[in-house]
Amino acid sequence: MAPHDIRRPFKRAAISDQQKRRELSLLRQAQNRRDAQQQARCLASSILSLQSAAPESQPEQSDIELETVPEAEPESEAFSKDLDVRQASKLRGPEVRKWFARQLMLPEWMIDVPDRLAQDWYVFARPAGKRCFVVSSNGTTVSRQRNGSILHHFPSALPAGAKIRDGSGSAQSYCILDCIFHELDQTYYVIDMVCWNGYSLYDCTAEFRFYWLNSKLEESGACNAPSHYHKFRFSAVPVYNCDQSGLHAAYTGVVPYAKDGLLFYNKHALYQTGNTPLALVWKDENCSQYVIDTDGKGEIPSQQQVVLELQDDRKLVTSDDPPVLFGCLDGDIIEKVWF
User: Fold this and answer.
1) Which domain holds residue 295?
2) What's the whole-model pTM score?
């Protein structure tokens, strides 16, 4: 009889592909922040050294050398995004729609349970409605849907969001909120805060962004009932720690909007554009009416269908938004089918 394999009970469980990508995303975030801090320190030290080394009788030489410093200055990711926001407000037609269509942070479907779910994750019930960016600037407020098209153009109580009598605020004041517009009660439910009163939150963790979201939004008066200078009401969604009680509250709790699944956010995640494994979505028949496909009459067909897309790296993903990884084709199979 073969000897008993004593290593089997202690074998480490396999790590899922989504978990690996979560870990890589967090490592990449940490490295980017360290790089940005190092660049800032180098820039500051170089400017100070130039200033201290330049003789007082030759200010022209100092100016010349200082002019060369910005050429080597790499911009941080957040600073580049701030510049893009200001530039995008000047774009027109298809260009501005194309730009805004790439700015939202999109969740992946939850296909496994993340490590340290109770300690490192938030959960909240996603409102049903139209996902959009809301931007207030120069005395007006504009909401743009995921495809970049304008949903509403209106005055609001957000900073620089309306042309009120005492002025519309500083030219540098603007806000960017990640929202879902709930048609039934005409309310913008804010699920994330990207910029507030000119201060960028791209490089802030979700834990800090949600803290600011709840405190600043209420202070601004944007949660008040609609008025002449405030056409739509804004509201923050209740966010819970992803422990047993928080999951139960998000899944079964009563909210003033129709639910469309649960959203999970990693507390350490920065706001990044496009799909990310640090934000996950879960839907079933108890928390979403859109969990399965229906036909043109709104009836459920006897069989559900799925459309798969073959990517360049041989991975098969669904056509959902966000897509779900289905599997990976062997190179021999691809050669037999396509060649």
Assistant:
1) 26-50+87-305
2) 0.70
